[in-house]
Amino acid sequence: MTGDAERRRREICRRAARIFYEKSFEGASMQEVAKAVGLTKAGLYHYVGSKEKLLFEIMNYGMDILDEAVLSRVAKIEDPMEKLKQTIAGHIHLIVHTRDLETTVILHENRTVRGPLRKKINARKRAYIEHLEGLVSAVQKEEGGPKISPRLAAYALLGMINWLYQWYDPSGPVKEDELARTFTQIFLGGLRNPAPITQSTS
Q: What integer pLDDT is reported at residue 2 of this predicted model?
């Protein structure tokens, strides 16, 4: 794909993501998207093929943004703990600042894409989960071995951060740096010193 074509694809994804977020995938029309990006409906279909393919492109671009904004920025950090902290901060920053864009559509329309397209998106999601799981394992190894499942810890962290798009208000009293610091403290505290769980006898 040429540079101009890639820029055009990203612009379509950005504008379509806002519409899908505001009206939902089912509620939005391709005519609305075409108008927003300055194309005829036929011209839009030429670029994206179908409405579902457009949603896939938005999600795929959202994963590109995750790679650029989070993974590429921590790639050269060697210390596992610092790498984990920066990954948490970077992911929070991404969710907070793209709450109505591509990454939010990934969360909001998680089960809409079907078939091979869904498999492609899920493969990219799994790669990120494995990144988090590997970081958790590395941190645990440095601190005396695992106390909880790295995979469960990775999913728990994703749940904490990804849910921000539902409730966090950037203009509210809690600022992003406090949010990142608090989430990191909660996660690392549970990772290092998980409370014992006792089974109920009732």
A: 66
Residue 180 CB neighbour total at 10 angstroms: 20
**Three-state secondary-structure class, residue 25:** coil
Q: Is residue 15, in this structure, part of any structural domain at all? A: no
What is the CATH number for 177? 1.10.357.10
List, for the chain, all residue ranges whose pLDDT scores fall below the cut of 70.
1-2, 98-102, 108, 196-202
Number of domains in the chain: 1
Alpha-carbon dihedral angle through residues 162, 166, 172, 178, given to the nearest 10 degrees: -20
Residue with token string 């890639």 = 6
Location of structure tokens 């549970």: 190
The answer to the question of residue 25 being in a domain is no
3-state helix, strand, coil in the chain (%, to 5): 75, 0, 25
| 168: exposed, middle or buried (Cβ count in 10 Å: 0-12, 13-18, 19+) | middle
Q: Is residue 158 part of a domain?
A: yes
